[in-house]
Amino acid sequence: MSQEQHYSFFQSVEKSFDKAAAFTKWDKGILEQIKACNAVYQIKFPVRIGDTVQVIEAYRVQHSHHKLPCKGGIRFSEEVNQDEVMALASLMTYKCAIVNVPFGGAKGGIKINPRNFTPFQLEAITRRYTAELVKKNFIGPGTDVPAPDYGTGEREMSWILDTYMSLRPGEIDGYGCVTGKPVSQGGVRGRTEATGLGVFYGLRELCNIKEDMDRIGLTTGLTGKRVVVQGMGNVGYHAAKYFNEAGAKVICLIEWDGAIFNENGMNPDEVLMHKKATGSIVNFPGAVNLKKNTDGLELECEILIPAALENVIDENNAPNVKAKIIGEAANGPLTPEADEILNKKGVIIVPDMFLNAGGVTVSYFEWLKNLSHVRYGRLGKRFDENMNMHILQTIEDLTGKKVSEQERKFIAHGADEVDLVYSGLEETMHAALHEVRDAMIANPQITDMRTAAYVVAINKVGAAYEQLGIFP
């Protein structure tokens, strides 16, 4: 076994950081500060489960305080450990910097399998964890704002909010202590699909850049491009759905218990209905079951989207990957060794650091909504609709022509919350992609997007520290 294979997740992140740091102007001390995790909180607390008391292990890591609050999800998984949470927290710092979201990176995790607990027990664990975070000031709208992650969702976020508000009564901005909440509790419309939609926006923009598509022998646009998606969770499903609706062919969907293939493409909505009915995507009508679910990663396709867990493509299967573009919808789906192999093959790897930043981008919009105490679109929607109708009526009067009822509704429509969220997300993903490409163009020695993304992030975080006056 090579030494490379023993890298932990956090060490892999550090390795990528060090590679990019060589292309920046910052001295060693500043780079060490940017790289370090500022605060690591390991918690063990007792919770009564049935007739027994169970000691729960949990973490919250604040990677960077160059901007506050810190921001990052909380995952429930038996695989949670300090190294993983530190790695994910550091990625959050760089991710927020790239997409210009003014947060430091953080991450949390509770080492449990949520399937082994009843909703009542999960609520007790979540509330106790929140209380522990409050004790040490590791949660709050101006200090640290958690969000959903693997194994958590709106339900857990509402428990966190309620616990926080009960311990901080009267805090006027208290609803901003956590994002990913139900809309009825201060959440924002569009948050559920945000990460998958962000993946779609980022890859669609890349596929519209002729220079990049010429380099890998593809035409511009998404029409007809073959897409393979690993993971039919929230992120993978939405990414697959938007690609299908845009005219791409989703030829393979991969889950933990199997993979299905149809060269003519599949409708992810129909696959999801099949999964809900049978408990699995396997045996989907019109599709072929692959022998091994990981075989799907090696299929002939234009775009491969790993949207499951980390390290699914390593030095063993990377030589067999035939995709021209890999969009990292999951966190860390490629090992550093896989990165090297695929870069040498000329594959465009669009890194997780900004491609899956849709979630934190829309979380930022939710946080702003909570601090402003007003729903997006509430103040301007009706005015815009009235003005649009007035302009349309004037044009119809001047021309003597009438538009159809369908066109009238489309033209008159004023932006509501979800329209504004989608628009802001699309702008964010487009700007981030071009910023990373510009970093590659500015320095021809940078040959891959991951290194360019780190360079962009390091420069922004370094500039923030410098402006704070922390360094003489």
From TrEMBL:
Domain of life: Bacteria
Residues holding NAD(+): T195, N234
PROSITE patterns: GLFV_DEHYDROGENASE
One annotated GO biological process: L-glutamate catabolic process
Keyword NADP (UniProt): no
Short name of one Pfam family: ELFV_dehydrog_N
Protein name listed in UniProt: Glutamate dehydrogenase
InterPro entries: Aminoacid_DH-like_N_sf (IPR046346), Glu/Leu/Phe/Val/Trp_DH (IPR006095), Glu/Leu/Phe/Val/Trp_DH_C (IPR006096), Glu/Leu/Phe/Val/Trp_DH_dimer (IPR006097), Glu/Leu/Phe/Val_DH_AS (IPR033524), Glu_DH (IPR014362), NAD(P)-bd_dom_sf (IPR036291), NAD_bind_Glu_DH (IPR033922)
Site (Important for catalysis): D149
